[in-house]
Amino acid sequence: MTYSIEDLAVMDSIIKRYPRSRSAIMPLLHFVQSRIGFVDGEGIELVAKILTLEAAEVSAVATFYTQYKRKPVGEYHVGVCTNTLCAVMGGDAIFAGLKAHLGVENDEVTADGKVSLEHIECNAACDYAPVVMANWEFYDNQTVQSSIDLVDSMRSGNPKPPTRGPHTLGTWKQASAVLAGINDGKAHEGVQAGQPTLLGLKISKEVK
Amino acid sequence: MTTTEIVDMITVVIDGFEVSVPKGTLVIRAAEQLGIQIPRFCDHPLLDPVGACRQCLVDIEINGRAFPKPQASCTIPVESGMIVKTQLTSAVADKAQKGVMEFLLINHPLDCPVCDKGGECPLQNQAMSNGQGQTRFQGVKRTFEKPINISSQVLLDRERCILCARCTRFSEQIASDPFITLNERGALQQVGIYEKQPFKSYFSGNTVQICPVGALTGASYRFRARPFDLVSTPSACEHCASGCDMRTDVRRGKTLRRLAGNDASVNEEWNCDKGRWAFKYVTAVDRLTHPMVRNEFGELVQASWPEALAAAAKGLKTHTSAVLVGGRATHEDAYGYSKFARVALGTNDIDFRSRRSSEEEREFLAAHIVGSTTTYFDIDRADHVLLVGFEPEEESPIVFLRLNKQRRKRALKVTAIASKLSIGVEKLKGEFVKVAPGQEALAIAKQTLTVKSIILVGERASESAGVLTAVAALADSSGAKIAWIPRRAGERGALEAGAIGNLLPGGRLVTDSAARIDLCAFWGTESLPTSIGRSSQEIYSAVNSGVIGALVVGGLDPLDGANSSEALAALERAFVVSLEIAPSEVTKRADVVLPVAAITEKNGSFLNWEGRARSFDSAVQDSLNRSDLRILSMIAEAMDTSLNLGTVTAAAKEIATLGAWEGTRASMKAVSVVKAPVLAPDQFILNSWRRLLDLGTLQKGEENLAGTARESVAVISPNRAQTLGVIDGDILKISTSVGSVTLATLIEEIHDDAIWAPRNSLDSQLLVNLDASHGEVVTVVKL
Amino acid sequence: MTKLVPVLSAHWDEKDSFTIQAYTRHGGYTASQKALSMDPDAVIQVVKDSGLRGRGGAGFPTGMKWGFIPQGDNKDHYLVVNADESEPGTCKDTPLLMANPHVLIEGCIIACHAIRAKNAFIYIRGEVTHVVRRLNQAIEDAYKAGHLGDGVDLVLHVGAGAYICGEETALLDSLEGFRGQPRLRPPFPAIAGLYARPTVVNNVESIASVPAIIMNGADWYQSMGTEKSKGTTLYSLSGHVNNPGQFEAPLGITLREILELSGGIRTGHSLKFWTPGGSSTPIFTSAHLDTPLDYEGVAAAGSMLGTKALQIFDETTCVVRAVLRWTEFYKHESCGKCTPCREGTWWLVQILRDLEAGKGTEADLAKLLDLCDNILGRSFCALGDGATSPITSSIQYFRDEYIAHTKNQGCPFDPVASTLFVGVGV
């Protein structure tokens, strides 16, 4: 059994957040990813069982959302925004640079299992373009070189910290636990805002 | 009783024509009333509106205010002051529809010439009627692996799928079997199963029927025919007492497929997979084609009809005879057997119950069921439905669908008195009143019902003493209606036809002289036997004790009842005239074998559980086989008497003319519950039922269907599993003095005293293997 | 000259701004106390009077939405906050939640009181781990401080990557544990929303605006902005500008004013096209620099205010490439439920790819426009409509550039020229 008694207790507490148990399906799938790294058959069947659903119903939900992975991703999952604005500002070049540097294509993992690569859609940080996400933490204002340095730091086991995020970059599984709603105690880490976020405020004070 | 419901009518104008329709009617259906066909795919009148395909877009204005954009007419109810312009009068609607059709076709393969749906395909038809002649698409079509099996009987071609979600909505909303779902997203969205869980729904065939393209096809019909080569005949389903309206499609004398017919008061537009796909038994077996007579050397040899009829007549005239007719005879055939017993054989020794039964049941049927009128409509209005000895999903699937519809529509309360919580009752979100097998009556007595409640009683209610007594008492005290739902299609008709020892046709009591005189006059006979006849079991016993010497046996399996060794011994001993379609345990032991027509080869009717006639015509026109009724008439003539039943039509007419008896009704004697046995740690009380898909005779020859049967398991409670030290999957051996079966354990919600196993499934033929089925104490060990 | 007026963003520059201590230091959770002492209907009236309109894109009056919730119906009511910020170019709610999650929580408490809801849910997109952390911690702290738990329960629900879940009924289906596909309306969420109960779905910024309105009054709020577009809002400037970022100003400010305040278009370049409110709003050009960025002003100029996501592209940007990429986005994010959006975006992408690669013809432009006509207003929800906006508006303003691709048999632009790091090396 992949899931311990403690895991099952956590899953039970996730279900209890909601007035109706089926609502817990998404955090439970994040939780499965925090244990397995992706949504596997056992995870689907377990979620179905504890929510008294058919596995097909859980699978239908899991395949709808792109964050649920059907195969293992890297310990550090790197997403390069290639939606229009980031792409134009350099996202396309970054993505091409990373593919070449890592020797992987979209949705592939490096042989050492450290880094996987995905081109992602707009991640709500356009004033920090071009944006790269790693385990869904922000790496703002990237260049081809800075992103190569970033993935190299991951592969050497000492990943650079996010621009706006915790002091250190956690693993994909750790990030998945946070998305499942489990507090890792790092909310206070990192800046409250980057410079672009504060620009309007700053100008408003200067104009006065 | 008829009630007139006041319905608000709303008048709308569609394409310039006024039409008044009940409030709540969707625009697309209001248009149908005018004969205006708005093209559509996802719309289905029995599924919730979804508005997904967008094919039915029309322009709508209400009281002078126009919607800014075309609306899906399948989702919008009519409103007063509404003016609708369909593709016929609105250029905007017409362009919108053509645009949607073009979108649907860009990714649809051009494999119509090899597609089963070709010729009856809504996409093909509506592309012709409402599409553009040419495509502007020059790009790359979406491709998927060509058809994949989503069960052994249903194949899915995702390239053809237009994602209307009819199949997934059916599975969820109607069958409550969400084993097929929409998966993935956007242009890659596709129907699919969870990889390890095939689409094993008893109702899966409906998705094939309502698929508006050739995406879902049935394995048995694939590449077999073109719709325009088929001859369709309206028919009725012979598999159970639900009474589905059906359509049988035949090409060159061979049935190629059967479809659910449309009858709003019974099966709506659905049927079960057994009804749809189990029809090869007619051709899969070595059909009897000629009469046979046992010769002086004891060998069964082919004979001419006159020889065989003479032999039958001689044997029957020289012995005291009885009649055993299975529960699958048509109403008219059952009437023939009933009349034959009384007129030609002068006996009331006749019984259609070729299964476990009881005297309590026979009295219950005479007192409460014959002539009764509980219907599907009563389910629609019931405040509470009590299930007794009855698993609707397994034993009368359309009753299940109707209950499920009301559960979904208005949270109909369903209570099951049973030992094991079934999948079907779980889907109905029913209350499960857990009782030990044999102790059901005590729980029934505790139920509170009202005059709006219904008690649905299955044939298995006869297997525990006192249950039917308790049902009658509960109905009496509460005013609730009773319906009796046997498994076999012919039992209700046979009851009404008097193919049972205590009743003559039309509910006339054998013991009521007024009823006998009435019937004598009608039949033109001088007298009728006056004493209550024997039951099936009693008939076998009487043969074995030498009291009865001859049997007329029509379409039954002696292994279906309790104590089958006694039945087989009786068949060996008696002079047996067997009317059968194929060699069987009966024909093997018969002295005269007379081949009869199968259901698809004759006309007739069944009375479903409601008592509603479900008539059908012969679908296969060139059959040489005759109905049981015709052959019984010929035997009677060879015995120098006459049934005066030359044809099925004549019999139907005679039944109708005779009518129901309005005189004295039977009463029933109360029967007490048998005290629960004391169990040793390794002992359980057996509980079982027949599953919808099992080793039933009428499912022979359809491997694809058999592949979707539920697994054979032995179900025990968590408590007992702990005591026995078993977990799911461990092998259990269940034994009686007769024999044993071995099955994998499944730990589920079941009474601690009970063990459940399927009654007639692969590796679990309880009546044959254990000579036990319900209420018997069995010994269980872990292997 | 319109001035920047930080209200939501007023204290974001304090290092611990996201903590409950910082929030209460500036009067946090006094608005909810005030609201809780008011009659719920009075709270709704204040919000109505303030003129606050939905900041998620549609601009529906927030107070009116609250007023739709049936009262005395003996049913559970729900508040659901849409924090699924995913519209390309939109980046206001995410920094707001990173810097000050408590203002949203307080807004939830007030809104729940107004609509008589005991349960609120925040549906946040899943691709922002640190924002999830901050918000979860804030909720925990608000419970500890007694702001939550006694009357209102708040659950953070984390999405998993699906733009369509920003559509309110798809969001509700997703929150109920289904595939996030839009529902038929009617019934509208106010009547049958979450779990088929009366539900208000509001954008983060809308709810976060409520505490200040309660504290300062409707008159204060509606003294800002324009005739029908009241109050302040966050404008998110991104792309080819010298200084991108968040600018909180009264509604009605123009792009020209924001550019002047912030430092203008990328030095040495000129404005070519921009979106007023995300990729689903038809693009503007330099001709629209003085269009008042309020609901009416933008609509009058042929687009929509949307999420006020001002994505700026200068003359180095190929409009065909930009539009193709957006169209690929809509294809990727189409939920698949309805035919025009699912199949239409599939087709549009193929035509645009050919056009960008110089393999298209002028006839393809007519085909594109006709396909857009067959998608716009024919789809189940606004996603399909949004997918047509960049195409139709770009052909309207830059038809010649499309044709240049066909004549040139390829894209005439150098993609390197439009990157942030051009000239500085990579």
Keyphrases for this structure?
heterotrimer; B: 783 residues; alpha/beta; seven-stranded mixed β-sheet; six-stranded mixed β-sheet; globular; C: 426 residues; four-stranded parallel β-sheet; 43% helix; 12% strand
> Using DSSP, what is the number of strands of chain C?
9
Helix content of chain C: 40-55%
Query: How many individual β-strands of chain B?
Result: 38
Biggest sheet record of chain B: 7 strands, mixed
User: What is the helix tally of chain C?
Assistant: 18
Strand content of chain B: 15-25%
How would you sum up the major sheet of chain C? 5 strands, mixed
Largest interface: A-C, 82 and 95 residues
What is the spatial order of strands in the main beta sheet of chain C?
Answer: 6-5-9-7-8
Structural class of chain B: alpha/beta
Which structural class do you get from the secondary structure elements of chain C?
Answer: alpha/beta
* Average pLDDT level of chain C: 97
Please count the helical segments of chain B: 26
- Span of the ends, CA to CA of chain B: 59 Å
Structural write-up:
The complex is a heterotrimer of chains A (208), B (783) and C (426). By secondary structure, chain A is of the alpha+beta class. Chain A has helices at 5-16, 25-36, 41-50, 55-62, 84-102, 144-155, 172-179, 195-207; strands at 76-81, 108-109, 115-120, 132-134, 137-139. Chain A is built from eight helices and five strands. In chain A, α2 (25-36) packs antiparallel against α7 (172-179) and α3 packs across α4. The model of chain A has no long low-confidence stretch (mean pLDDT 97). Chain B is globular. Chain C has helices spanning 20-25, 30-36, 40-50, 62-67, 93-99, 101-115, 129-144, 168-175, 189-192, 204-208, 210-216, 218-222, 255-262, 295-300, 319-333, 339-356, 362-375, 382-408; strands spanning 78-83, 119-124, 153-158, 199-203, 232-239, 245-250, 271-275, 284-285, 309-314. The chains are: A alpha+beta (208), B alpha/beta (783), C alpha/beta (426). The B-C interface holds B 49-55, 57, 68-70, 75, 95-96, 99-100, 102-104, 106-107, 136-137, 139-140, 142, 162-163, 182, 184-189 and C 162, 179, 184, 331-340, 342-347, 350-351, 367, 371, 373-375, 377-380.
